């Protein structure tokens, strides 16, 4: 549950609802589709971004970004590798970039390719910048940039799209493309639809039509670009978690089977050792159901003790600091665990309890 919730949370925080990423490569490869066809596709171009920005009517915002290039940031004798992202002005309306101090790019800074940057909190720490780093100058691969904003500290992500947020540096895309884009020539175009299912469908259809016309793609021809949606990632992880749930269920089922046999053996031994006592209880008027429930409750108690010990270990683990995957133990999970433990206790103890309840009191008293 914790893994599922954290991954879903990271996907949601990556961008809001109704966000599409137009790129050369799909996020999830199609089965049996020749990879070289993706490789031979043309790169996304800045001119295509400008065309969509001017002509796309169904989008709230259109931005161009390039993620994932590692560069060296330095200040005096301090330096570190950072994840560089070039982004146009509208990207702030598409992605969640929480600014702790300072601000985002201005349109003039984005359009004119000014040497300004927004840095992650870990970058500010490692370069030993002042508490308010806004206005300070750092070097990115030896080129001077003025800091205009510092991103809020987030910690390690399970899914780090383009790098850990605290190690990121954002610069205007026009600056990025003129200085750093030689290593990675194919950016992505990010688009945000209006907040409705119909708005998303309209934008996907419109952007596909505009790109077909711009690239002169005939109706029967394959697309030379991919429209990537977060829904696709969610569906991809749905398949992974379905497989994990099946594997986890098989492992848990085997563990429960072994534990159930263990409890059953303990109860059979207990019945055998207390045969004389069972005979005495019956001779004093104890009913069969009393003997049955006596041993059945003991089996349930043993099973619950095992369940509580397991839950206790999980509780202890949740107190261990974990940035990437904080574990969550909910009341629902605890309740399910105790119910399953009780059920295993009933299954494991019913046969020994039945044997004890059906004993002949005379024979039971004579046993040693």
Descriptive overview:
This protein is an alpha+beta fold and 368 residues long. It folds into two domains: 43-224, no CATH class; 260-366, no CATH class. The chain is built from 13 helices and ten strands. It has helices at residues 2-14, 35-39, 46-55, 91-94, 107-112, 121-126, 173-179, 197-214, 230-273, 275-283, 288-318, 331-357, 361-366, and strands at residues 19-23, 59-75, 78-87, 99-102, 116-119, 137-140, 143-151, 168-172, 188-193, 226-229. A six-stranded mixed beta barrel has the order 2-3-8-5-7-6. Strand 2 (59-75) and strand 3 form a beta hairpin. The model has no long low-confidence stretch (mean pLDDT 84).
Summarize the structure.
The chain is built from 13 helices and 10 strands. It is of the alpha+beta class.
Gross morphology: elongated
What gap, in angstroms, lies between the N and C termini? 51 Å
Number of domains: 2
Could you list the spans in which at least 5 consecutive residues all have pLDDT below 50? none
